[in-house]
Amino acid sequence: MALTLDDIKYFIVLKDSLNITRASEKIGITQPTLSYAIKRLENELGSELIIRLKNGIQLTKFGEEFYKKSKNLVLLWEDSKKILSTKNEEVTGEFSFGIHPSVALYTMSPLLEELQKKFPAIDIKLNHGLSREMTTKVINWEIDFGIVINPIEHDDLVIREINKDIVTLFTTKKLLNQKDPAKLIYDPELAQSSYILKNIKSKKFNISGHIHSSNLEVVAKLASQNLGVALLPQKVAAAYKNLIPVESAPSFSDRLCLVYRKEKHQNPVSQQIIKSIRDIK
Question: pTM for the full model?
């Protein structure tokens, strides 16, 4: 099987992880597939890149030198897909965005409309998952941009705040007036959930038990049907007119941010895309 650019990208992730198991999980492939990709690279380059240890891997001297060049190889290839066509002067190529699906619902429409006006010939690829997962994909060169919630500072990232939101409890007037306790409906994987839960006093908010869902639209829909109290971002709850914030409930302030690797986006097209993203309201 011929060497591919993915083999080089996989090597970069492996070096950053120093563990084949963790690297394969980050990439989303099996360990044998990753090992085979590294072996293809070694065969093509004519030298070993890694040394396998009991608790992980380390790079050979050649591997260290190739790692320094590999990021430039990926960068050069990614930039080459975003250049002007010599025939019609239209920008072509594909740009990838990582974004939580719920954030995409209230963010991507105005952005895509703007990008289609400016660059009708470019393609867009959307990757969905938790914000921390999408941030990792940007760091690992797997996607071009992340539109994420509350990113952690990282030496390889440019982080630009583009909007704010509030996460708190929402319910209906019907549930507010009932005497029986309601279940809390929320996604336990969200970091905001842990903060809110620590600050909830069940007696005060008349909450007992829970319904878990990894889909915030499902959370909002169930709450709007009087099935419980929802833990939601305000922008998600806003799609349901009968959902109202619970008075005096704890809240968490969210930062919606653009994240990207500076060295990957020096070209004029990327700079215009960055401006369009930062103009989202």
Answer: 0.69
191 CA to centre of own chain: 14
Query: For the residues 55-79, what does the mean pLDDT come to?
Result: 81
The CATH number of whichever domain residue 133 belongs to comes to 3.40.190.10
Domain that holds residue 72: 5-80
What single-letter amino acid sits at 181? Answer: P
Predicted confidence (pLDDT) per residue in 105-152, tens digit: 988 998 899 888 888 888 899 999 999 999 999 988 788 899 999 999
Tokens of 25: 């999980």
Q: Helix 5-17 and helix 20-27: axis angle, to 10°?
A: 130
Which domain-ending residue is among 34, 57, 80? 80
What pLDDT, in 10s, does the model give residues 211-220?
A: 999 999 999 9
Tokens of 215: 């889909």
Asked if residue 23 belongs to a domain, the reply is yes
153 and 217: one domain?
Answer: no
CB 151 within 8 A of CB 135: yes
User: Which residues, 6+ apart, have CB-to-CB distance to 184 below 8 Å?
Assistant: 169, 200, 207, 209, 210, 211, 228, 229, 230, 231
